[in-house]
Amino acid sequence: MADGWGNDGLIAGLRTGDAAHEADLYDAAYLEWLRFGAENDLLETNPEASCKTGVTAAQMTLAKQVAAVLGVGVLLAPMGLFSVVSALAFSAFCLLIFYRCFLLCVGFAPRTASPLSSDSAKRRFIWPRYSVLVSVFREPEAIGPLIAALKGLDYPKRQLEILILLEESDTETLAAIEQLKLRPYFKVLVVPEGEVQTKPRALNFGLKLATGQMIAVYDAEDAMHSTQLKDAVRAFQYAREETGRKPLACVQAPLIPHNSGESWIAAQFTQEYRVHFGLIVPGLSALRLPVMLGGTSNHFDRAALEKVGGWDPYNVTEDADLGLRFAAAGYRVGHISPPTFEEAPIGLRQWIGQRSRWIKGFIQTAGVFFRATPASRIRVMGLKNYLSAVLLLSGSVLSAVFHGPFALWLVAQAVLPGLTPPSEAIILCLTGFSVHILSVVMSGALASAGAIRALITAPFYWPLQTVAAGKAIYELIVRPFYWDKTQHGVSVKSLSRKQLRTAKV
């Protein structure tokens, strides 16, 4: 394979198992250098890409101008302002619905057989050194299933290293790991305390000590299909043989919750994931458009990952941010078929905590993305990439913020005497719900009576995003870099290894 793939030890001298360097890992100055770099490399090399710098002066000026215009409108012509805002919102939501429908069709459309499936059995592959990074924090109950799933990865063990990243304060998870007998390709790295405590900071720390040309990222609750690493290598090799196309930086594996029947929230969450990773991501990938990555089951070309600066340790949706930075740097994101099964939130409080972190991160990502002028972004990314990124990023935030108020306003129009819901609002609702039904059916996420109930009651689920958005905005003001950790291991359902091995690819 090209570019030196298959050469062992890309970064010589940083293997945690090498006796000559074992002492270095416990040297205070060396650890401080690693910690500082994990937190500040992106900020120092490309401060415009780091969300730590916050809102720029130009963005603050624009926000003040918009607030002033809205304030004057409320005082002088409130009904006129309401009409203008309603028209803009209606147009924006219509555009988002139709764009989403377009992506669904592209993601669903049958395509010719991929080379990965047609001739991969006939070819010989050189398997490059692969580093798997798994950030774990206060999840001792997840360690056993996680290690079992990682052991099941089908990849040459001499070319594999798995780095378990623990926070220094997480003594309970460390104690759980110490009870297990790990194979030599497993290494446990303790990340020192620092300015922030986030998953992307831990990943940056692990990246500095990783030795692989390929980097994979998993979460503690993941049960990944055994063929993922090999499928990712095949995808990258075929991409390197193509000409006239943007280089591939990352491939995303689909994420599928395994406990959809455990609660109404879990069922709704599962349908979201099945549509997003089963249709939207393949659609974006097929069109070579920016993909806001999922936070796990990403497989990176290390050179591309390091070229864009790694993860932003201050962004709480580091995955979405990284996907846009790849697009801005001229890379593309692909997808592979072997899935990763994970645990969906089963309670409302658990769901709001996770969703609020996502929305806060999307706002952070939007703040960074819109620092540059549209002209400069288009010059770097191209017009279609820019427009797609704007639609998806803005839509993720605005839909979360306005779903609740829109639902309350629509109910008030329907039940209060003398009021009638505007026909445009009814058409918008029916169109959006129809597209949702179509997308869930296309994704194949209607395998049970509970899934059908979730589909029918989805309009009651969407306004809950506004509650999460309110929490996100509050936290963005008072503690912008706080990572609201999702509690895993609360599900009573689990996925057996046999189910994982027989999962459809």
Strand and helix layout:
Blueprint: H1 19-22, H2 28-45, H3 57-76, H4 78-108, H5 115-118, E1 130-136, H6 140-151, E2 160-167, H7 171-178, E3 186-191, H8 199-209, E4 214-219, E5 223-224, H9 228-241, E6 248-252, E7 255-257, H10 264-286, E8 298-301, H11 302-307, H12 318-328, E9 332-335, E10 340-342, H13 348-369, H14 374-381, H15 383-415, H16 423-443, H17 449-456, H18 458-461, H19 464-478, H20 497-501
Parallel strand pairs: 1-2, 1-4, 2-3, 6-9, 7-10
Antiparallel strand pairs: 4-8, 5-10, 6-8
Helix pairs in contact: 2-8, 3-4, 4-10, 4-15, 4-16, 6-7, 10-16, 10-17, 12-13, 13-15, 13-19, 14-15, 15-19
Describe the structure.
It is built from 20 helices and ten strands. With 505 residues, it is an alpha/beta fold. The chain has a seven-stranded mixed beta sheet with strand order 3-2-1-4-8-6-9, with helices on both faces. The protein is globular.
Annotation keywords:
505 residues; alpha/beta; 20 helices; 10 strands; disordered N terminus
What does the main sheet amount to?
7 strands, mixed
Structural class by SSE content: alpha/beta
Strand tally: 10
Major sheet strand order = 3-2-1-4-8-6-9
Mean pLDDT: 88
Number of helices: 20
Provide the low-confidence segments as ranges.
1-24, 111-115
State the separation between the terminal residues, measured CA to CA.
Answer: 25 Å
Beta-strand percentage? 5-15%
Shape: globular
What portion of residues is helical?
A: 55-70%
The ordered string of helix (H) and strand (E) elements is HHHHHEHEHEHEEHEEHEHHEEHHHHHHHH
Radius of gyration, in Å, reads 23 Å
